[in-house]
Design goal:
The chain is 35% helix and 22% strand. The chain is built from ten helices and 21 strands.
Length: 404
């Protein structure tokens, strides 16, 4: 881990850039979460995944991959700004800037409702020039003046007028970050709010006997990506699978038209995935469930391919494949050509020989294992979080004790 800063400018413009702060594997896991769960963000052309949103969509277990990273960044901020044991996390979220997104000069506390923010941290999850073009971060004064995002780097700075900054327009691809804000005001402590939401969510799941593993889509308007003032746009869930070569398929007799609300109903119902003229027989609970498995496959594709080569085919799940017939119809929502233009630059391997249905069937099984382990860890950790009113990683011995 290396640093990039200008000591002479620190007093006037406190900031620090650290290279390789988190690993590429950690970045890829957060990328998987965002591409699986992200919704429209706070600005045009911006998508976001907040921790409260993960809880609301029955994915509280996906908070676990954030925990060690956010606490490391908090420790870094307390050390660098000399405010030990004085900071609370105010916001944690994955934010992606799509083609056309930008923001002019501003400080991060430039609104009355943002005055509680004292420090900011931006952790870059993909790289300028490789995964996207444009999107360069600039400070108005001081050094370093311009930040070209590189996967794994983290930038911390004060949220006030000493660090006025801007972000160039993204001209291609999707610029992905983990963004955090810190506050000295305990009234804005994110951990306390999240722990309350987690307690309520897990209790409701127990009372309603809900499946703790299956995601539940948010309101459909949260997934609608609007483009300009001409009412063009697309559903982010459909777009995410489409640009990777899939489509949602339904056997519902009710036809899907973007102009009415029927597509929204279909995306919340059980559906299947198609690729070309082939339909996977596996039925998914809803569009978000299918999207998570698709993104998991592309996150773990190389591992899945290696695992299948090293194992007996008799012991591995086999895909059930169907021919596309008139019995199935595609759930197509919005301008998917526009989606390709906006989201078309993805960081996954685009080799045409890369995809394999056998590997995808294995991904379905591995996704269940991955989610199950996270859920178990969450169940073990939550009582401790409630007791201490802080979110942290439980010791492995505590997890093992619970499993015993």
């Amino acid at each position: 881990m290396t640093t990039s800063s200008a000591p002479t400018a620190m007093a006037e413009h406190p900031r620090l850039l650290l290279h390789n702060f988190i690993t590429v594997d950690q970045c890829k896991e957060l990328e998987f979460i965002h591409r699986s769960c992200g919704v429209m963000g706070y600005r045009p052309g911006v998508l976001s995944t907040t921790l409260s949103h993960l809880i609301a969509t029955n994915c509280p277990h996906l908070i676990l991959p954030f925990v060690s990273i956010r606490n490391r960044i908090k420790d870094l901020a307390e050390d660098f700004f000399s405010c030990h044991f004085d900071l609370f996390l105010e916001f944690t979220g994955l934010i992606s800037w799509c083609k056309g997104a930008s923001i002019g000069w501003h400080s991060d506390d430039n609104r009355p409702y943002l005055k509680q923010r004292d420090f900011a941290a931006v952790c870059y999850l993909n790289s300028h020039g490789k995964d996207f073009k444009g999107g360069v971060f600039h400070f108005k004064d001081g050094e370093p003046a311009s930040i070209f995002p590189v996967v794994g780097d983290v930038l911390i700075y004060t949220a006030d007028s000493r660090n006025v900054h801007s972000v160039d327009e993204v001209t291609e691809g999707e610029r992905l970050t983990l963004t955090l804000w810190f506050t000295r005001d305990s009234a804005h402590d994110e951990d306390a709010k999240l722990i309350s939401l987690l307690s309520e969510r897990l209790l409701n799941n127990e009372d309603n006997h809900s499946d703790p593993f299956l995601p539940v889509p948010a309101s459909d308007n949260m997934y609608w990506f609007s483009h300009g003032h001409d009412q063009l746009g697309f559903d982010v869930r459909c777009a995410r699978v489409h640009i990777l070569g899939y489509n949602f398929c339904s056997t519902s007799k009710k036809k899907c038209e973007t102009s009415d609300s029927s597509y929204e109903e279909l995306l919340a119902r059980p559906l299947q995935l198609s690729r070309g003229d082939v339909i996977l027989g596996e039925e998914f609970a809803n569009s978000l469930h299918a999207l998570q498995v698709v993104q998991f496959y592309y996150w773990k594709a190389h591992e899945l391919k290696a695992a299948r080569k090293c194992s007996s085919s008799a012991k591995l799940p086999q895909p059930s494949l169907l021919e596309k017939t008139s019995y199935f119809h595609l759930v197509l929502t919005g301008d998917l050509k526009l989606a390709e233009e906006v989201l078309g630059c993805v960081s996954y391997d685009d080799n045409p020989n890369f995809f394999n249905w056998d590997d995808f069937a294995l991904a379905i099984a591995k996704w269940k294992v991955y989610i199950g382990k996270l859920h178990e860890h969450l169940v073990v950790s939550l009582p401790q979080w409630i007791n201490h009113q802080i979110i942290y990683l439980a010791e492995p011995s505590e997890v093992e004790k619970h499993n015993d």
